[in-house]
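Translate sequence into structure tokens.
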Amino acid sequence: MRTDTLNASRTCRNARRRAAVLVAVVLLCLGLACGQALAKPNYTRELRPTPRPHSPSSLYDADSPSLPAGAVTVRTAGDETFSDDLDNYDEAPVSSIADPLEPWNRFWFAFNDIFYLYIADPVYSFYETITPVQFRRGMANLYRHLLFPTRFVNNLLQFRFKEAGVEFGRFIINTVAGFGVVDVAKREKTIVPVDPSGEDFGQTLGRWGIGHGCYLVLPFLGPSSLRDGIGRIGDCFTDPMFYVYPWELAASSELWLRFNTLDELLPTYISLRDAAVDPYISMREAYVGYRRQQVIR
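Result follows.
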């Protein structure tokens, strides 16, 4: 009996040792695999097809048209002319906007980059799989419909009375015929061309002759400037969500409606980021060029 007990105990210990060795080998293999993945990151990303071109501005401007041709030049890593400029390494690129807060801006740019690529993009991909495209498009139309007061008031402040009339007419048609979720007036020809993104207070300040000031990168929202940051505060007072009570309902509704438009921003952001030698500078110059075109058009 005692011999059987000793044999059973010895067998149990041997089994535990084999299991421990097996677990150690598995963990070692996993560690080596993770080490190779970290040492050689895969920069290629499968992008969703872009429904239409959009500007790399910010979440607030997600429904804006694309930049005009030649407004921004992006130098890619495979550009043949890049090697010809190696002797000019001591010459810093000339910025089109003052950037005294560059270290601080680069910190928030890196923060936003991680948020967009590793949180917003996967979450939105899951959101796309569980919601039909008609629903997402209707909610995007509703969000644009709700921002009518911002576009209308800023057109008036810029003395764009015809554009204000077009915005008002579209608002009435879409309210009556589309209940705000269908853009019925989209196909209607207007007396004057109107920017699909409309006008905001930052553009109004630019039309009044106020410059950008300095460049700013806002958490989650992305590229901006001192002028446009102040403009966002002004836009809050013409946003109907600002007057919804309780504020938790207003904030959550606003965040969800903005999240719903990420399919118009993320593909453009990722493609521009991957094509640039320095994504921070590329985004900065693209934003400034885009806002300049919005103000002077």
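Note: The first strand starts at residue 215 and ends at 218.
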